[in-house]
Amino acid sequence: MTPxxxxxxxxxxxxxxxxxxxxxxSGRRVFPEIQPGDVRARLPEHxxxxxxxxxxxxxxxxxxxxxxxxxxxxxxxxxxxxxxxSYPSIxxxxxxxxxxxxxxAWATSPSATELETxxxxxxxxxxxxxxxxxxxxxxxxGVIQGTASEATLVAMLAARWRVTGGDINADGDTTRLVGYxxxxxxxxxxxGFRIAGIGSERVRLVPHDERFAMQPGALxxxxxxxxxxxxxxxxxxxxxxxxxxxxxxxxxxxxxxCERERLWLHVDAAMSGIAALELSLRWxxxxxxxxxSYTTNPxxxxxxNFDCNLFWTADRASLIGALSILPPYLQSAAAEAGAxxxxxxxxIPLGRRFRALKLWFALRTEGVEPVQAMIRDHVAxxxxxxxxxxADDRFEVLAPHPLNLLCVALRGDTVESANAATxxxxxxxxxxxxxxFTRTLLDNRSALRISVGARATTxxxxxxxxxxxxxxxxxx
Amino acid sequence: MTPxxxxxxxxxxxxxxxxxxxxxxSGRRVFPEIQPGDVRARLPEHxxxxxxxxxxxxxxxxxxxxxxxxxxxxxxxxxxxxxxxSYPSIxxxxxxxxxxxxxxAWATSPSATELETxxxxxxxxxxxxxxxxxxxxxxxxGVIQGTASEATLVAMLAARWRVTGGDINADGDTTRLVGYxxxxxxxxxxxGFRIAGIGSERVRLVPHDERFAMQPGALxxxxxxxxxxxxxxxxxxxxxxxxxxxxxxxxxxxxxxCERERLWLHVDAAMSGIAALELSLRWxxxxxxxxxSYTTNPxxxxxxNFDCNLFWTADRASLIGALSILPPYLQSAAAEAGAxxxxxxxxIPLGRRFRALKLWFALRTEGVEPVQAMIRDHVAxxxxxxxxxxADDRFEVLAPHPLNLLCVALRGDTVESANAATxxxxxxxxxxxxxxFTRTLLDNRSALRISVGARATTxxxxxxxxxxxxxxxxxx
Lengths: 476, 476
Fold this sequence. Notes:
The structure is a homodimer. By secondary structure, the first copy, chain A, is an alpha/beta fold.
């Protein structure tokens, strides 16, 4: 591809994306009518022996790939969690790809590192996070990770390093370690315990209350029991907005226990933490002032295109202690002087993209006001949905809905029949292609999750989705 | 930003990138004259209270950010390893950002998953990899990871799962595990052992020969010693092209030992494996037919913009066993039927971008011929450099140079004086701003690494770099 061809195809592709995002629902099902293998069957099994034109590729993209995608940007997308993209963030990703730098260390791209640090500090202000997470604080700082799963894992590794005085790096002795969360915590906690060689059996599931929130008294008891069994409690993860039901653990009370017991407190606000951009919802940050680490995802609700996870810690020394390794081929004067941040020591991978551009472009040219307005709308519409389903005696609202997720279920004579009816309703709604809902289990009750978070979703789309569910729900 | 503004700014940005890549060396130092903090000092400490125009952002990009970057695309970039970008891969990244799908599972984006599987199979053919890595084989398959560090880590986790019959996930018992590589292996091996809770002490450094390659006899002895001490050897990593000197471990001989001892053999060809695209260099794959897993990086030499790491295994059941976790909110009919691949179970993170587009765009519109030609050139020029420095008695070539990396040093009366002179030469050359070299240590000898891998580098640039070093080197 010549530079001129790149210009031409690049312009076309920008226009293609503008058209796509301008009308993401147009003529597309949210989830395609497709079976495993259908897409591959339409593509050549072997690499081409002759070069093809870019236009041919775009034609296949339009006829095979896009129709085979789950449409996360569709106005009828109420599944999993939002994965919004905004125009400036797309341009930031494009620029990052064009510059082609590796931001693994300060020396490998100074301005990529420094802009990233600054963006984390800007976001600390915009989210109203504790000052001790700021890079200019004595012990804290932030970093862009790929995903919240990675953020959780590095938090766990930092916690482990601190409780073992760093010995873990050398001896790998995980035999006494034990950590805590509820059954509602994200699967990445348990997966992290497996990866870290601690094991699922050492993740204690603290009982939750009827709001699906951690019971601090039970946590304190479990820690005491583990200590008397000779184990070494080291890590607690509370969630601010669980994936299943958007439950909020009582971090202030948990923080008190963690402080007393000297455990690392990590707060996972991957899905909902961005709500703090809106001042009236800043309660989502309650308790963070005593957390050791915190994570939230601009790549979900905020519209900074995936991947852009933000992770802050108030104890960067433990994080770097756990993850730093300096072979001779990566040494530099800056690294040795300790004057600069080398973000490779804050994460699992070595290499890293220049992801700060996405945030910088978006915060300067669009700011947070459009996001605040969208968040207010989504939260208000979700409350309206709760009223609608609350007034329909076929339905039951299964969990608190403080923000933009509503978990509803059909009633039934038994749990089994209610679950079967709810599952059937989800399937029937999704089969229309107009909407996509996903399912969860809340204390064995099957729940239809309505996640109101797509950027393209309007009030009319939300009311339409409710009407569709009411129409499809069987009479009692 | 309105759709129309997105079109306009998007076109401008495509043109900006075309100009940038068309003349990456123009007026720019490879490494900026900059100190830690310089970039941040020129940017506002707090987020803007008023919105700014996109043109203002681009102006700051040009005046502050780009001049503060290490220029990985510069023709004088001979540092670390290549990180090339090609036009179609940039467009693939752009399209991925615009589509905004999350490819964590088949159900979350069917065509993203299926195109990825196909691209791994295409690359298996183009690299001449064993058929048992193909997704259509009985037990194998491939996946795009972010980085080789992650690929190495998941290989280690799969190996650990297999040797413990899966018990590790539950009990986290790492007490007897031990793995093997040389001191020349990438730092991600040791970092992976730390993350996995096994510890640095359980990474045995197998002695290397004068070519910096693993000594299989020593490996066999170490395994026997560890077994008689009651330990559980489980993992060997050989490297095809070490980062320090591009050494190749003798994988065929190591594979024989691994097969006999039932150890997982992972081959790390992050930097050099792409050479196999060129038929005359296919020897870089020697021994892969008996490896359990393999990784190489199209985001280095091949020009698929970062991140795009390819990881294959011949034992996907162990990989998935180690990494699969299925909470209710991620269940789907496809996942339960086992009919589709859910790539979240092949990696550390949960979420993932639609990275296959980059490969698809590049392989269809440019193919591998331009890459093959570039590889042949880079290898030939590196051999010419070896001749030039071999004929200059001030210099010494410190390691074999089968491909595109040459490690040279200045001679000296003592190791200390030679090292000091070599380090000074690196600093002096880099200070010109015309080139960037990085340093490594090879058995305590300081070495100047000349990595001939940037896409923009011409024969003239290579000869110019050699002449610069000869001019700056002190007379004997």
